[in-house]
Amino acid sequence: MAKVFLPELEMYVMLAIARLQPDAYGAVVRQEIESRAGRPVAIGALYTTLGRLEDKGLISIREVLPKEGERGRPRKYCALTQKGHAALEHSMFKLGRMAAGLGYSLAPEGRR
């Protein structure tokens, strides 16, 4: 299987989905990225990224209609595919190898 290299926003989106499963949908994915990474994400950029990740086979998206009596649009729930888990693991491993020995931590405690 060819290795997939993830750009920054794709990696953030996939990490948020992994953290939020099974409740990962657009608005909460966006909030997760903004709160954890401190990176603003335009909703259009998020949905474009979700479409690109689905096209690559890295995530699956299922649409859930509002329950009877609820208002609003259908929610698009996201989940990592097996290929997505492998791509995320590969990218995190490579990032860790690049940072090794530099004194940077991939998950610094108490820092944002």
CATH superfamily: Winged helix-like DNA-binding domain superfamily/Winged helix DNA-binding domain
Count of separate DSSP helical elements = 4
User: What is the total domain count?
Assistant: 1
Strand order of the largest sheet: 1-2
What's the order of the H and E elements? Answer: HHHEEH
- Highest CATH level, the class: Mainly Alpha
The geometry reads as globular
Structural class, by secondary structure, is mainly alpha
What is the average per-residue confidence, as pLDDT, rounded to a whole number? 88
Low-confidence spans: none
Annotated CATH architecture: Orthogonal Bundle
Main sheet overview: 2 strands, antiparallel
Calculate the terminal CA-CA distance, rounded to whole Å.
35 Å
CATH topology: Arc Repressor Mutant, subunit A
What Rg do the Cα atoms give?
Answer: 15 Å
Q: Beta-sheet strand percentage?
A: 5-15%
Q: How many beta-strand elements?
A: 2
Helix coverage percent: 40-55%
Summarize the structure.
The chain has 4 helices and 2 strands. It has 112 residues and is mainly α. It has one domain (8-65, 74-96): Winged helix-like DNA-binding domain superfamily/Winged helix DNA-binding domain (Arc Repressor Mutant, subunit A, Orthogonal Bundle), CATH 1.10.10.10.
Keywords:
single chain; 112 residues; mainly alpha; Arc Repressor Mutant, subunit A; two-stranded antiparallel sheet; 2 strands; 50% helix; globular
Write structural notes for this entry:
There is one protein chain. The chain is mainly alpha-helical and 112 residues long. It has a single domain, classed as Orthogonal Bundle (Arc Repressor Mutant, subunit A), CATH 1.10.10. Helix content is 50%, strand content 11%. The chain has a two-stranded antiparallel sheet. The longest helix has 18 residues, at 82-99.
